[in-house]
Amino acid sequence: MKLAILGAGESGVGAALLAKAKGLDVFVSDMGQIKEVYKAKLATAAIPYEEGTHTFERILESNEIIKSPGIPDKATIIQEAIKKEIPVISEIEFAGRYTDAKFICITGTNGKTTTTLLTYHLLKSAGINVGLAGNIGESLAEKVIDNKHEYYVVELSSFQLDNMYQFKAHIGVLLNITPDHLDRYGYDLNKYAASKLRIAQNMSGADYFIYNNDDDIIRNAFDSASFGGTTIPFSLQGAAGTKVLCEGTHVKVNVKFFEGDIDASRSALIGKHNQYNTMAAVAVAKLMGVEDSQIEKGLETFENAEHRLQVITVSKEVTYINDSKATNVEAVYYALEGIKQPIIWIAGGVDKGNDYSALQDLAKEKVKVLVCLGKDNDKLKEAFGRIVPVVVETTSMEYAVRMGRLLSTPGDVVLLSPACASFDLFNNYEHRGQRFREAVEKIVLKK
Name one GO cellular component term (predicted). Predict the structure, then answer.
């Protein structure tokens, strides 16, 4: 069998290594430049590859093509494959063929990474033999080569779900659906929703679909009547039929054989959106047989991924929080809504057509200082200049943190939650978050 792999990033190289391990004739092609670390892996495994081009003749003589998630279906090489009726699948679909492990799959427009990491942490800390893979940045296919785990927690983007057909999750989680990546779906929200709902495909009676019962788009798009598995809706609002409910600091699970009442008060996760994320992860843990006390301990010891409402330090009763991943208004809303203390808010960067009106009431209630960190701050100043008592602007992260330290009083929070892309002053949101941490360590902790 001849297999062509398009894209030589984490997923593509992982798929290539698995294909080679299974004795398939594999060829890797990437229109861009391949990172040295991936070239080394391909060379060590004696896998032929090309970069900077696609050799159509060689690719289209394959029996099957594995497509990296970032390549759209409208790409010429994909259209040519479709004309020749060559199956085009995802790395996840391919990996699923070579393991008997069960998959716990998590998707949603927002919160995927936090929920995936939390779910993995709850299960692993309870002693379950579980691996972590998918959109989190680790290839499922490469992990399947050694096949050491009974379960895998897999974060899935809509792009990965689009090219999955026979793959089945034992537990599927859908956190939310809001308009995103619509250019890949003909600017049709219904098509995007259908992509997300592929998380529940092929399920049977022994499988579980955990979904947000407060999300109107999910409720309208999900055809529960024809669904083959068991539904586990979760809700903050007490929606009818809910089986997982958050009441104050307690998560209550009411599923036959899996009931629980979990105290989440010691969790470090902040905000309403993280209550949803926590409900989903707790529901998975209960379905996997984890005891309430083990879940509570796991919630207490969990540390979220960097740049997502990450507490850097508390100094002189002032908390410094890195939320650099918040590159849109909705993400900042979650941050401002979830923090109860007065806020010195560091925001700004490359505006993506933001409408800040949704943040104005929260800013008026909670923000005492706005530090505009960007080359063009006019839109931020216009939106909040009459609402926030103090507005300053800078192009220096160190100056922004210095202002936070100078203008804060005990009990305040200095919050980096930009609402904007980072490319005017930084390489990416990770770079921006790292610079924030470095500035806090230098100026506040004086390291």
Answer: cytoplasm
